[in-house]
Specification:
Four copies of one chain form a homotetramer. Chain A contains three helices and five strands; from the N terminus they run E-H-H-E-E-E-E-H. By secondary structure, the first copy, chain A, is of the alpha+beta class. The first copy, chain A, has a single domain, classed as Thiol Ester Dehydrase, Chain A. Chain A has a five-stranded antiparallel β-sheet. The first copy, chain A, is elongated.
Chain lengths: ~140, ~140, ~140, ~140
């Protein structure tokens, strides 16, 4: 299955008084990971929204293994675990680049909804593009 | 003129690896300060928005004098410097509570705009309420 | 078991372009919830740190049920699910105040570590205070 | 004088319920701008800190001209306005890439301090590298 890795440089704004990245801030990077993964598949989330579709997070899980520090480069590797009728699950592995040290493992589950908040199937073309990537592995 | 002081406890999320509040995060508290000041005057920003008015920030200034640290209580004192035809200026003084130590002085200028982004005068009732407070001192 | 509920007013900084609280930002409020819960038990996290103890998050889970919006008041109800030799688990229930609408359910697991990052038992007095609350229910 | 432009993709986390980037979040990007500018000059801020030097923000100013929106690319152009005995001023121009639309102009002033918070001159080599860039224009 297709994976996507994006690199992010830790800035001061991401850190906390323990000298490491504040645990919440990795979740910002999950967003970047999944957005760039589907962009690579030809699915631009901003376009989905223009068509009236949204993908709010319904579930989120993080396992914190080792902390990232200021100015380190964090690699965010994202893949799709599954796509169902009206939901999609992304999996993330974040590791520090120079030492290849695993930082965080996590996942997020999202529902497809329309502008009124009703759960819907994604547009056929989007479903096709994503399913093709999942099956092809 | 009416002033409003709100108290905020510094959490880990607000701090950075220097062990102090990251400079950007005081600006979150400016928002709380001005929102609660005008609420005290009977002007609820959420209601203004429902009537089609918005108050985006057009200018922002901060002078950082001393840092706040984890678990300290920050007092945000806000007042209105002026209200003009289509703009309003808030001034902020943030100080650490237990030592009465001045942390940050700043201001923000905001424009009144409508839903299409056009600069407009605020609703008469809002202008009246705020002007009354400024004049009465 | 003792529970603690803190109330937080949603500000613009917490929201995103979907018009609701960005999913990550609820996790800031988890921190406030657990800090105020243990403060009520006589355990001040800032003091724990001065004694050389830290409680980094090792696991985090959120289930998002309904979104909070600008200016709504979010109630963060926190309790301790368990305390083990060197770890502690907090559970959170966030709901919108005026409608008593459930927003987010979640938990976080934390390890007790010392200044060098080694996993340790918490100070006896802290363990006693917390265990007393758990048992007493 | 040397300038540095870095490009940042707006994510959902950066936006607010007005549908635009929350005004505070541009200040995160100022940090990225100045860090990458001095890195280009051979000055790595993380190394400065290891030598016991810090550069806290003492003053900050932003002028907001036009809002950035979700998924747009923001170009952060940074240069040094001056370097004095113990302080340095950075200037920022942020614009939206596809339309070359100016978003925010701002500056930040920083003091050189040592580990105890005392104002100091920067290391000779750092001062030389930066001064060379400013003079050469």
């Amino acid at each position: 299955m297709r994976e996507k890795t994006v690199e992010i440089r830790v800035i001061y704004a991401d850190t906390d008084a323990m000298g490491v990245v504040y645990h919440m801030n990795y979740i910002r990077w999950f967003e970047i990971g999944r957005t760039e993964l589907i962009r690579d598949m030809g699915v631009v989330y901003a376009d989905l929204e223009k068509q009236g579709y949204h993908l709010p997070v319904t579930e989120l899980h993080c396992h914190y293994l080792s902390p990232a520090r200021y100015d380190q480069i964090v690699c965010v590797k994202t893949k799709i675990a599954y796509m169902r009728r009206a939901s999609i699950k992304f999996e993330y592995e974040l590791y520090e680049k120079s030492e290849n040290r695993l930082l965080v493992e996590g996942y997020s589950v999202h529902a497809f909804i329309d502008d009124r908040g009703k759960i819907v199937r994604p547009p056929r073309e989007v479903a096709d593009r994503i399913n093709r990537e999942i099956i092809e592995k």
